Sequence to fold (271 residues):
Amino acid sequence: MLFSLRELVQWLGFATFELFLHLLALLVFSMLVALQADLPSPKLSWWLVFVPLFAADGLSTYFTTIVSIRLYEKEKRLAVLRLLWVLTVLCLKLVCEVLLCQKLAEQDQARDLWFGLIVSPLFILLQLLMIRACRVN
Amino acid sequence: MKMSLAQRVLLSWIFTLIFLIMLVLKLDSKIHWNWFLIFLPVWTFDAILILMLIVKMAGRCKPDFDPRDGDESVKRRLWYLAALLLKLAFCLTLCSRLEKHTDVLVSVVCVPLWLMLGGALLELGHSVFCYRRD
Fold:
């Protein structure tokens, strides 16, 4: 729409298959959220609802590691840079997901966990994406 | 006139940042605005995208337009327009639900989102498997 697939792959640093994986995880996650909200009782655990997102992060890390190991034989610098970038993005995403899940699962105990803190990894990610966009451009 | 990648990134970046800030302030109860107002950056961004799409599609009506290079892109642009409208429908029903204007199930609210994600998955899956076949 606004970006072509090629531009997205260049900008985000993820392969097309990884984007597909994350999108699929988002679809399953949204279905589980709807199920969690609509089921009267017994409610699904929030940790269970977040499983697709955690699984997508894990699989994406696995694929990136494999790709980087293969790439390391030909282009060492590119392989290390790619691995570092994808791991940084996935770590920030994972931190945000875990904090959000904890806030939703333990609402009484996690009162000090305010949403500004939960979303802060996303703010860092936005800055990093902006810097990367300038480099790609 | 085609926008450069940096300009397009900046456009989406600004709207995402403003939306995230407003969302956090609302969720932390620092502001007590209407949910429709919180989603204002989303409405604005979608309106800009729809306007850009309509302008591009209207370009077909020019007298010097070559129909040979337009068939594929028209289908694609119609799908983009449908996806944008589905996203808009999802955001509207979500806001109505959050404002308690309606009492529909969350599953019903999510139907446009699922349709949009399903379509995007099909398109992405098609490009993944086409690339592999090549």
